[in-house]
């Protein structure tokens, strides 16, 4: 299986989950999606991650983003694990977890990296746009928990840059200045961005966040 790359179409699938059998595309509808994998149920770092994801659901909902997690254990195991997550992380898991016992989805998304472990999925993240294209991929080692503030920040950047001819600079957060696309001449940019264009270099122009 070739690695999924940015701009590739995210594979569709139908799978058993902790919330019943779901089709991925139907679940996402016309919105954005985050698919993230876990090596197994009852693992400590992933327990904290799923609890954190549940707490962030309101923020993702505001951005029209639906989450779906994956583990290679079965649905009944997931339901028992969810009880632990809810208890220890003081939340309620509010999104489906795929029971990928046959590794079908793991293979579709190249989530098993033999040099890390030849049976368990690595901890991958895929952000998928309304066009069902892969917009971002991240792969974490088992020892490092994911940063959900960063995932929110990336979604904000992806949604902004999908609708405006700008890019976001290092460490950008919603509301901060953005970079004008280098393809736009400065005089044209001044017409496009009425809040003003600051020219630091001919190729480096900043403008206030057009959505703020």
Structure characteristics:
Antioxidant, Horf6, Chain A, domain 2, 4-stranded antiparallel β-sheet, 212 residues, alpha+beta, 5-stranded mixed β-sheet, single chain, Glutaredoxin, 32% helix
Overall mean pLDDT stands at 93
Q: Strand sequence of the main sheet, in spatial order? A: 5-4-3-6-7
Number of helices: 6
Beta-strand residue percentage: 15-25%
pLDDT below 50 for ≥5 consecutive residues: which ranges? Answer: none
What would the CATH topology of the largest domain be?
Glutaredoxin
Largest beta-sheet characterization: 5 strands, mixed
Shape summary: elongated
CATH level-two architecture of the largest domain = 3-Layer(aba) Sandwich
Count every beta strand, where a strand is a DSSP E run of 2 or more residues: 11
Q: What's the CATH C level of the largest domain?
A: Alpha Beta
GO biological process, one term: cell redox homeostasis
Family: Belongs to the peroxiredoxin family. Prx6 subfamily. Belongs to the peroxiredoxin family. AhpC/Prx1 subfamily.
GO molecular function: peroxiredoxin activity
Domain Thioredoxin: 4-160
């Amino acid at each position: 299986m070739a690695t999924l790359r940015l701009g590739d179409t995210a594979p569709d699938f139908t799978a058993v989950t902790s919330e019943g059998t779901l089709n991925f595309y139907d679940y996402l509808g016309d919105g954005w999606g985050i698919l993230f994998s876990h090596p197994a149920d009852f693992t400590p770092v992933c327990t904290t991650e799923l609890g954190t994801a549940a707490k962030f659901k309101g923020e993702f909902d505001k951005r029209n983003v639906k989450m779906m997690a994956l583990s290679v254990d079965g649905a009944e195991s997931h339901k028992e694990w969810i009880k632990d997550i809810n208890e220890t992380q003081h939340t309620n898991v509010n999104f489906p977890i795929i029971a990928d016992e046959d590794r079908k989805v793991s293979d579709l998304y190249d989530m098993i990296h033999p040099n890390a472990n030849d049976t368990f999925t690595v901890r991958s993240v895929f952000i998928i746009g309304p066009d069902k294209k892969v917009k971002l991929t991240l792969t974490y080692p088992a020892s490092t928990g994911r940063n959900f503030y960063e995932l929110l920040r990336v979604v904000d950047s992806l949604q902004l840059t999908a609708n405006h001819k700008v890019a976001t600079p290092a460490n950008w957060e919603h509301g901060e200045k953005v970079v004008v696309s280098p393809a736009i001449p400065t005089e044209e940019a001044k017409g496009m961005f009425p809040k003003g264009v600051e020219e630091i270099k001919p190729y480096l122009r900043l403008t206030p966040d057009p959505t703020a």
